[in-house]
Amino acid sequence: MRESEEREAVGEGARAHQKGYVHRLDRVATSFFFTNFPEDVKAADLWPRFARYGRVGEVYIPLKVDKQGRRFGFVKYRDVGDAIELLR
After folding, report:
1. At the top level of CATH, which class does the domain 2-87 belong to?
2. In what residue span(s) does the RRM domain sit (predicted)?
3. The pTM is what?
4. Could you give the CA distance from residue 30 to residue 54 in angstroms, rounded to a whole number?
């Protein structure tokens, strides 16, 4: 599956089939974009940090970089406890 080859993913969505959990999560999730993190950090390392702000469904970091050459990623939350605190 091309998508799984192009990103590092951790969470329930990482092992789900295309028509299963990931698509249900997409309908109910809040996505949060993040960037500016060290090269050696993996999605599993970030999971506990993001879990402080709500129920995390998936954390993924694409293997590609942005136009400035920086890594980026997304967290999909099933529930966000404090959105204002998350943005800080």
Report:
1. alpha beta
2. 30-88
3. 0.65
4. 10
